[in-house]
Specification:
mainly alpha; three-stranded antiparallel beta sheet; 15 strands; globular; transmembrane; NALCN; Ion transport domain-containing protein; membrane; transmembrane helix
Length: about 1150
């Protein structure tokens, strides 16, 4: 795809006026195609959007001058676009010609916009003449007018991309979106049908016994209103004095949620799948019907529809976005690295060659100069910032001490701002930050002096060169203006709280991470611009659709409409907006309009939540994606690090190296000699001995090598096993045979040395490893393989003593190049895979050889509990129990090759873990189920079957850990139980369970050791993560991303602190009020008052002779119940709730009521 350079330039997929877009001002063209005319028309389209956004009844009531302003602007714009349309029809023809007007799609769009403009002008004339009411539903005819702004937007959609390429991408992406849409509709239909069958109508309510079912009022319901069940053995039962009856109410009164039929069920399922208010629907079903139905239905629905389908949409959008990334690279720009200092190319070299490198040099430039003695880099002053300060001041600016001083001042300023706290004790708000004002004056003077000092040292041009200096200068100007008394408590506070953002520069890792998230400005900026344009258009359309509804403030002005559509975008309270609009529409028009309103809001919600928000995820993932060259370098670096780690043994095994070597010795008996031979190493004697190995079929014994022969014992490859009865390799009665054997031995040594040389030179062929076989060579017997292993061991021991070898002379094809030629010509991204394979294999050989040396020189090495012999049959039996598993391979009895069998997923599942692990998975699962059954009254201390489950878990885990310890050891063995955190967690869970079982406390006081044991027992399900390999791998990958998770958390905390500090300084101490809305002064907030209470969400009203349910409550002057900004802790907690998209509407409404709409900036 990248190689098709000839197709990167093609015709524009979108042209402003079709083929005439290629014309310019220098040719003889019509007036309507001139560039300045086209720009006037684009500006008029923007003015038309502003005009239609201000054309509502409420806006005209607030600002009467808008009536004539909007009419004049609409009339002028309509005439101008009409003239343009007529001119194009005359020039191109209407239906006939080369490019007729009505056969071009963009021209059809322009003509439709002109039609709606005339409709809007005529409708406004009728309104001005009072022929049509101000709140007439005819205002919906203006709804398509906001689409005229597409004339302005489409100039940004011209891409240097061929049509065919774009069509292919759109075809593939549309097919994927179509498939995932079908996937979504399938689950919607499935749960819609299940809802109808499982629930049906949910309209049973608790009412008073004397209630007339045909005349229900607000006072007839329970407080609060409760759904109930007519069956005694399920659901909620009404209290005494009330009865459970089905209410026959209109949908505009009872609401639209329910499972009455398939349409209502689909509507309710979509609301619940959006995770907005789904718990209330679930509890209604639980109160009305058996609880298992609602539990099963809603939990599975949330899993499949809310999580699975949504993530599939994100994956599809991300994949499509990645496919189009190459095409949009020219539009968005190429990702680069942060360069805060001038970059200079420097020529460097040695005796091997020369190369050009890039170095970031702080305010200086170095050039290459030379003489007869050699070459060196010298400093020049051509690129040095020219300031007025002496050289010593310049050294201060670039010193680490000065940098730390500035960072310390920023932290001190943040701490001083965070220490601001407000209390409601009768004092005025100004008294709390009276001293803070003078502290802020001091910090502002300090940072202003910093800016002046840098300007003095670097000069104006040198200071303005870096973007961080521009940001510092902006903060200095803003904080200086904030010191004006009447501006101190104003939005200028943003400049002060943004100082802490400079701390991001203190961490290069965090700075690079932030840069990667936001990426090139055009990429994320284009997406934000697209989202804002979508919100503007959708808000204007929705406002014109629903502005005729009287006494409904959600869409009465553009500001309210924009907030409502943004609220739907965030998925907070969007169901409330839709339901209220449907009810208002039904009251103003007819009931048949409500489904159309619901479809409109559902389609908008579906688009913005599944498409637009997925685009944000795709952009951020694309920004975090590394370039291919850097990705390869990072992978190679990780491989080299892993190879280096494998060379060393864990610390628990290196402990044996601190002790003196005591190898196992052997004494030779029955040797005819006049002198007694000393003891020799057992490993040395094994080189001249051969063991007899039984064949697999049990018919006889034969010679088997450690590396050769398929019929050898599978445990024969383990060199530390006890040997069977041996005999001399060279019988005294066959000297010729001995000579023949010596020849074979020499040939095998030559082959082994050749293999070792291939290993050191990085040949691409297979390299033999200790204990592993290369191609089967039946001519070699066991003794030759022993000698081969000895030769490999000798080679590895020699390589261990060598320093780290340089493999740069190795090439991918196996050739040996010259060192200077390779190092000078090869690029960093030219990766040598063979070199890494050789390093990894040699590191593995070194590690294995060190284990063999420790096993040979230390008798207690690889000895479980220092008591069980490493060669004992008891340990072999324990290993057989621990490692026994189902064999998933099916071999042909004749050829011995593995047969491919279909439908063996169950077999693969059985072979996933060992039999012992399967038993423990089952026992742990049953034990966790028993833990779930425990309650405050149904406890393990008084329920025998819970005690049996606890005893069974402890007994089985004792057997499991005992077998694993006896088979592989506890700590100081290669495969010890405690070799990683998984083993530590297993041992901790077992210890906690054992202590609790031995103690079994009857009384558990709060904050006691018994309660701590009960809490720690909840870690038991984590055992399943250790036992299942796939789950353990997922947890491991999650832990590997700890660094990125930490960076995101730090960035989140910094941003939270910025906005929380702003909230404390702006809103601290200003949100408290009296719970009686009629009282505005604190001194008057005393006594009691009657307050109406909430009863139901249904639109029921009291009868004429009835009053709304109310109760007598005391007057209290306090903050809102859930949040406040009186200190930095409460402010950060409130903003964290806003980040979850839950509860931010309450904060918005409180700020708007207390401080006005200006506080929502």
């Amino acid at each position: 795809m990248l190689g098709r350079k000839q197709s990167l330039r093609g015709e524009h997929i979108l042209a402003d006026y079709g083929p005439e877009e290629t014309l310019n001002d220098s040719t003889d063209i019509e007036w309507d195609n001139k560039r300045w005319i086209r720009w006037i028309l684009r500006v008029c389209s923007l003015v038309s959007l502003v005009s239609v956004s201000a054309n509502t009844p409420r806006s005209k009531e607030l600002y009467p001058s808008l009536i004539y302003a909007t009419f004049c602007s609409d009339l002028f714009i309509t005439l101008l676009f009409t003239l343009e349309m007529v001119a194009k029809m005359q020039a191109r023809g209407i239906l006939k010609g080369d490019v007729p007007y009505l056969k071009d799609r963009w021209c059809q769009y322009d003509a439709s916009m002109v039609f709606f403009l005339w409709v809007s002008v005529i409708l406004q004339v009728f309104e001005m003449c009072d022929w049509v009411g101000q709140h007439s539903y005819l205002s919906v005819l203006r709804a398509p007018r906001p689409l005229i702004v597409v004339r302005l937007i489409r100039i940004f959609l011209k891409l240097s991309m061929p049509k065919n390429r774009l069509k292919q991408i759109i075809k593939r992406s549309s097919q994927q979106i179509y498939n995932v849409t079908l996937f979504f509709l399938f689950f919607m239909s499935l749960y819609g049908l299940l809802g109808v069958q499982l629930f049906g109508e949910l309209r049973n309510h608790c009412v008073r016994n004397d209630t007339d079912e045909e005349d229900i009022s607000l006072n007839s319901l329970a407080v609060p209103d409760t759904f109930c069940s007519t069956e005694r053995d399920s659901g909620y039962q009404c209290p005494e004095g009330m009865k459970c009856v089905p209410l026959n109410l209109a949908k505009k009164v009872s609401g639209f949620n329910g499972f009455n039929n398939f349409a209502y069920s689909i509507f309710t399922v979509y609301q619940a799948a959006s995770q907005e208010g789904w718990v209330f629907i679930m509890y209604r079903a639980i109160d009305s019907l058996p609880g298992w139905r609602a539990t099963f239905f809603f939990t599975t629905m949330i899993f499949f529809l809310s999580w699975l389908v949504k993530n599939v949409f994100i994956a599809v959008i991300t994949e499509t976005f990645n496919e189009m990334r190459v095409q949009f690279q020219q539009l968005w720009g190429i990702r680069g690295h942060i360069q805060q200092e001038p970059v200079t190319q420097v020529l460097s070299g040695d005796d091997l060659g020369w190369k050009l490198t890039q170095e970031g040099i702080s305010y200086e430039e170095r050039v290459l100069s030379g003489d007869d003695l050699g070459w060196k880099l010298v400093h020049v002053d051509g690129n040095k910032p020219r300031g007025w300060a002496p050289e010593c001041c310049m050294r201060v600016v670039v010193s680490a001490g000065y940098y730390l001083l500035i960072m310390g001042a920023i932290i001190s300023n943040a701490i001083a701002a965070a220490s601001l706290s407000f209390k409601h004790d009768g004092r005025k708000r100004e008294e709390f930050y009276h001293h803070y004002y003078y502290i802020e004056v001091g910090f502002t003077l300090f940072f202003n002096l910093e800016v002046l000092f840098k300007m003095w040292c670097l000069g104006l041009r040198g200071y303005w060169r870096l973007s961080i200096h521009k940001f510092e200068f902006l903060l200095a100007v803003g904080t200086t203006l904030r010191l004006i008394p009447y501006l101190f408590d104003s939005p200028f506070t943003y400049f002060q709280v943004l100082r802490i953002v400079r701390l991001i520069k203190a961490s290069p890792i965090l700075e690079d991470f932030v840069y990667k998230i936001f990426g090139p400005g055009k990429k994320l900026g284009s997406l934000i611009l697209f989202t804002m344009c979508l919100l503007l258009i959708a808000s204007s359309i929705s406002m014109q659709l629903f502005c005729f509804l009287d006494n409904y403030d959600k869409f009465e002005t553009f500001a309210h409409a924009f907030m409502s559509m943004f609220q739907i975008l965030t998925q907070e309270g969007w169901v409330e907006v839709m339901d209220e609009t449907m009810i208002k529409t039904m009251r103003e028009t007819t009931d048949e309009i409500a489904p159309i309103v619901a479809i409109y809001f559902i389609l908008y919600h579906l688009f913005v939540t599944l498409i637009v928000l997925s685009l944000f995820v795709a952009v951020i993932l694309d920004n975090l994606e590394l370039d291919e060259d850097f990705k390869k370098l990072k992978q190679i670096k990780a491989r080299e690090q892993s190879a280096g780690i494998q060379e060393t043994l864990p610390l628990r095994l290196r402990v044996f190296e601190k002790f003196p070597a005591r190898p196992t010795m052997a004494r030779l008996h029955k040797v005819p000699s006049d002198f007694s031979l000393p003891k020799v190493r057992e490993s040395f004697m094994r080189q001249y001995l051969e063991e007899e190995v039984e064949e697999e079929d049990g018919l006889g014994k034969g010679r088997g090598g450690l590396l050769g022969g398929e019929g050898g014992d599978e445990d024969a490859s383990i060199s530390f096993r006890k040997r069977r009865p041996v005999r001399l390799l060279t019988p005294l009665s066959h000297p010729r045979n001995a000579d023949y054997e010596k020849k074979k031995q020499g040939v095998s040594n030559i082959i082994c040395d050749a293999n070792n040389q291939r290993l050191l030179l990085g040949d691409s062929g297979q390299i033999p490893l200790p204990g592993k076989s290369i191609h089967a060579q039946p001519t070699f017997s066991g003794k030759h393989n022993w000698l081969e292993q000895k030769s490999i061991r000798r080679s590895v021991r020699g390589s261990v003593k060598m320093k780290q070898q340089n493999y740069d002379h190795l090439k991918e094809n196996g050739d040996i190049g010259v060192m200077n030629r390779t190092s000078a010509s090869r690029k960093p991204q030219d990766l040598d895979i063979k070199m890494l394979q050789a390093k990894r294999q040699q590191a593995e050989m070194k590690r294995n050889q060190r284990e063999e040396d420790l096993r040979e020189n230390h008798p207690y090495f690889d000895t479980p509990l220092f008591a069980v012999g490493r060669e004992s049959r008891f340990r072999r039996l324990c290993q057989l129990v621990v490692y026994s598993r189902y064999d998933t391979s099916h071999k042909d009895p004749i050829t011995g090759k593995e047969r491919k069998i279909k439908y063996k997923r169950l077999h693969n599942l059985l072979g996933l873990v060992t039999y012992l692990d399967w038993v423990m998975i089952l026992v742990t699962t049953l034990s966790c189920i028993a833990l779930m059954m425990e309650t405050a009254n149904y406890r393990i201390t008084n329920q025998p079957w819970l005690q049996i489950a606890e005893f069974a878990f402890v007994v089985f885990m004792s057997l499991e850990l005992g077998l694993k310890i006896l088979a592989d050891g506890l700590l100081f063995t290669p495969k010890a139980l405690i070799r990683d955190m998984a083993g530590v967690l297993d041992l901790f869970i077992y210890t906690v369970s054992l202590l609790f079982l031995c103690w079994m406390p009857q009384h558990v006081p709060p904050q006691s050791g018994a309660q701590l044991l009960l809490i720690l027992r909840c870690l038991r399900p984590l055992r399943i993560f250790n036992l299942v390999p796939h789950m353990r791998r997922v947890v491991s990958e999650l832990c590997k991303g700890f660094k990125e998770i930490l960076l995101v958390s730090v960035l989140l905390i910094v941003l939270l602190f910025v906005f929380a500090s702003y909230g404390v300084q702006m809103y601290g101490g200003r949100l408290a009020r009296c719970n009686d809305e009629n009282i505005t002064q604190r001194k008057e907030c005393v006594g009691v008052f009657v307050r109406e209470i909430f009863v139901t969400k249904m639109k029921l009203e009291p009868k004429v002779d009835e009053k709304h349910p109310a109760m007598l409550v005391p007057r209290v002057w306090a903050n809102p119940r859930r949040f406040n900004f009186d200190n930095i802790g409460s402010a950060m907690l409130a903003l964290f709730e806003v980040l979850s998209f839950k509860g931010w509407l309450d904060i918005r409404d409180v700020l708007r009521m207390r401080l006005g709409i200006v506080s929502l900036n």
